[in-house]
Amino acid sequence: MKSKFTLLSIMAAAIVAVAVTASLLLNPLGGRGSVVVFTAPTLVGVAKSAAGLYDSDIVDVRSIGSVMGVRLIQSGSVPDVFLSVDWELLRYIQPRRVLDLGHFRLLLVCRDDYSLNDLGHVKLGLANPNFAPIGYRSLAAIYWLGTKYELVRLDEVSRSLNVRYIHNSSDHSVWIVVRDFEASGRFMARDDLAGVAALLEGGAVDCIFAHSPFIVARGYAGRFKIIEMPDEITFLHDPPIKFVAVTESGFIKVKAFRAFAASFTTAGDNFLDKIGQMDLERYGLWRGRG
After folding, report:
1. CA separation for the pair 179, 146 (Å, rounded)
2. Global pTM?
């Protein structure tokens, strides 16, 4: 897994190189004493609040999917701080310091008065599991909702999203093959949760999966219907069975949501100190497990 993740394919590397080049041309990292923060869309609220405590005039907060953030760091575009929603990604970077931001939950957010029982027919927005951890966790949740609760048809999901669920009888694990992920039918996809949220807000989809911190940051509780997931598949704890996502980058064990902030410079260390002063429960994060 490590070698597959570290040694990206030529095509993926080329895409990242183009993205990095364009980003640096528009706004070079570390320019004019600025503190550059890469943050998953879910943690934008945390990053911006910490920026206010630090010095918002010199903090450049950039919303980037967690997996893409790792790819950028590996390609040499290293920020002062990286906020991610997936603790498992820490093994692929080498920060100076790491701050545990806590655990959080997966929820369903809908425009109208839907319930989980409607999941089998609503227009559903998903994040690409090759770029965003919420993508493969959403697919794990869909598998559980389909097999235990019979709320969705997995054959339709597999066909419409070009993914495969493979049950390994030796250890009762489920492997979710998402390398060729592509949405069609009643599904729409974007690279990260911010893009998926735009689909919901614009009315292109009926429902999306979202993290509790993202819902808090966007003020969704007052705008949309927030639907609780079954306790065993909220990802506040590890899921009830072993899920492994087979992505473009390699094999990733799908575990409980646990966020972190990593620093790469002295300025980044100071920024982490500001986050440490914050009440993270206000942002849907729990240092315990709820």
Report:
1. 21
2. 0.78
